[in-house]
Amino acid sequence: MQRFALDPVRDLLLIVDPQPTFMELCPDELPVPGAEAVIPVVNRILAGPIARAVVTQDWHDPAHLSFASQHPGKRPYEEVALPYGAQTLWPDHGVRATPGAAVHPALDQAKVVLVLRKGYRRSIDSYSGFRENDRATGTGLAEWLRAVGVTRLFITGITRPYCIDYSAADAAELGFDTFVVEDACSRLGADAALDESRRRLESLGVRFIGSAALLPT
Ligand SMILES: [Zn+2]
């Protein structure tokens, strides 16, 4: 198995949305099966040679337009047309400054040097940590990473094939050497959709690895 010689400047762990709102801890929000089990895997990586990490955090307006509750007659997982295109509707989740939106308290934040909040504009969702769902509004993350010398990203967190896969696709398109750490990512939905998303990411140059590749030999 390939193990990576990690550089303290060039390499960075991206931890996507490690928030209770996506866990069984918050059954009335947007629980993703198995999401909480990602935290100890990420903590093991953080205890290894990786030097720096960034956390993204879903941070929605209470009346966010990605919430089904804002669209009378619509239910979660239906789609609506927003000015920027089709948007899947979700249960209310990640509402700013609520307990569910916090960074999970068990995450080891010692190496986390930036927490980037996304999705805070009421009218635009943001799956990706790099670009909002209108595909035009940047979050500033790419510029920040370049400013501090990062060229290679290892992506973990919650959840494929949404916020993780959108972030990975954008990272690759923006020129970062991009890896998805499969066993450090939760999964939502059918295997076929996850496989199709993986193939698309691989066509963009994203590679899939196991977390052991980031740990000491
Ligand atoms: Zn969200």
Describe the structure.
By secondary structure, the chain is of the alpha/beta class. It has a single domain, classed as Rossmann fold, CATH 3.40.50. Helices cover 18% and strands 23% of the residues. The strands form 2 sheets. A 6-stranded parallel sheet has the order 5-2-1-6-7-8. Helix 3 (163-173) links the parallel strand 6 and strand 7. The model has no long low-confidence stretch (mean pLDDT 97). The structure holds zinc ion (ZN). Zinc ion is lined by residues 58, 60, 66, 93-94, 119.
Report the total helices: 4
Task: Determine the N-to-C terminus distance.
Answer: 10 Å
| Structural class by sheet pairing and helices | alpha/beta
Fraction of residues in H or I helices: 10-25%
CATH superfamily: Isochorismatase-like
Which ions, cofactors or small ligands are bound in this entry?
A: zinc ion
Supply the CATH class. Answer: Alpha Beta
EC number: 3.5.1.19
Organism: Plastoroseomonas hellenica
Keywords: Hydrolase, Metal-binding, Pyridine nucleotide biosynthesis
Protein name: nicotinamidase
Could you list some keywords that capture this structure?
217 residues, alpha/beta, Rossmann fold, six-stranded parallel sheet, two-stranded antiparallel ribbon, 4 helices, binds zinc ion
What is the structure about, briefly put?
By secondary structure, the protein is an alpha/beta fold. The protein has 4 helices and 8 strands; from the N terminus they run βαββββαβαβαβ.
Secondary structure topology:
Layout: E1 11-16, H1 38-46, E2 53-58, E3 79-82, E4 85-88, E5 112-118, H2 141-147, E6 152-160, H3 163-173, E7 177-187, H4 191-203, E8 207-209
Parallel strand pairs: 1-2, 1-6, 2-5, 6-7, 7-8
Antiparallel strand pairs: 3-4
Helix pairs in contact: 3-4
The protein binds zinc ion.
